[in-house]
Amino acid sequence: MESLESAVKRGARILAEYLGGAITCDAHHMTNPMPDGLGQSSCISKSLQDAGVSPQEVNYVNAHATSSLIGDLAEVNAIKQVFKDTSELKMNGTKSIIGHCIGAAGALEAITTIKAITTGWLHPTINQDDDVTIDTVPNVKKKHEVNVAISNSFGFGGHNSVVVFAPFMP
Fold first, then answer.
1. pTM here?
2. How far is it, in rounded angstroms, from Cα 158 to Cα 40?
3. Which entry of 8, 55, 60, 78 is 20 to 30 Å from 167 by CA?
4. Domains and CATH numbers, the chain
5. 38: buried, middle or exposed (CB in 10 Å: 19+, 13-18, 0-12)?
6. 12-42 pLDDT per residue, tens
7. Phi-psi region of 57 (alpha: psi -120 to 50; beta: other; left: phi over 0)
8. Which positions are tagged coiled coil (predicted)?
9. Which of 75, 81, 82 is nearest to 136 (CA)?
């Protein structure tokens, strides 16, 4: 990432714009998030507030999605709390296809989110839970014009971070 001024000065091709983000810690449990997703939903809401966008503007979520029952359901609960109507929302799980890269996971998922913005393609989620009612882009990539995207990272000890990206509009 670099400032707009620096990128323009050096003639860089700007891939996306970082609109904002948030970091929170709910310290609920050493390994498990709050089942209702409250700690995570708080971080998502704060990131949108920092970015100056409403939940209705977001149409893509790169989920933390570790394939742990407790964690994934808490994240789905958090997303439903913030986004209320998820009928137009697309959400995928990068870890479902590349595994958990531990310390590099957040960075790789941010890159994946930006690639979705620049290419208009969302990678599929594989082995998804059929009970999740949000469109998880199951098994086959999908064309999707991203307006505003978030990338979630939720770690042990209740450490939460969410970054917000959008296409760059000169």
1. 0.96
2. 8
3. 78
4. 16-166 (3.40.47.10)
5. middle
6. 999 999 999 999 999 888 999 999 999 999 9
7. alpha
8. none
9. 75
